[in-house]
Design brief:
Helices cover 34% and strands 16% of the residues. By secondary structure, it is of the alpha+beta class. The protein has a 3-stranded antiparallel sheet with strand order 1-2-3. Strands 4-5 form a two-stranded antiparallel sheet. A hairpin with a 2-residue loop joins strand 1 (75-80) and strand 2 (83-92). Helix 2 (44-63) packs across helix 3 (67-74). The longest helix has 20 residues, at 44-63. The radius of gyration is 19 Å and the shape is globular. The relative contact order is 0.14.
Amino acid sequence: MSRGQPAQRGMLLHDEDFTIVAKYQSEFRGLVQFYLLAQDVYRLGKLQWVMETSMLKTLAGKHRPTVTKMARKYKRTVETSEGPRSCIQVTVERDRGRKPLVARFGGIPLKRQRTAVLTDRRPVMASGKRNELIHRLLAECCEMCESRTRLEVHHVRKLADLNRPGRREKPAWVHLMAKRKRKTLVICRQCHEDIHAGRPTALSRK
């Protein structure tokens, strides 16, 4: 927000449209999931409008058209458990018959779920043109063991966390992230589980 109005985020202007939309969605989804147990979760509708407007202003600031034109270009209707919902969607086509990469903002029903399980999720999208996450995902290769199956993204809140005092020996993934100055790693499911379990990650995996 700026002066009471949704504002663009200048730090994202050099990112791909896919990255911009995915970042906004990951942040919004995390908030919605945290408050799904609340009776008035529908109040997050105002937050959704603010974030969507900010996102469209960011996209408009990058491409120089109007916010209305950006909304018209990316607006889609998707089916949800609560019926059709409008959203902003960016699709990146891939060759060799592979499924396209889809980043979507919206489409989340703001309805109370009495049995919801609270799962905090940190945003996984990193800024910076040289480190575009979309290009690393398109490479379809684990950055730890070079596996090409079940790829996921590991994320740390900030690079300073990689150098916290008291850590006896830094694992390989910490050295890799610190060396590349990245807060994200594109890794396979097995490496991701090894990291969270504190086990050594494999250097290569067939």
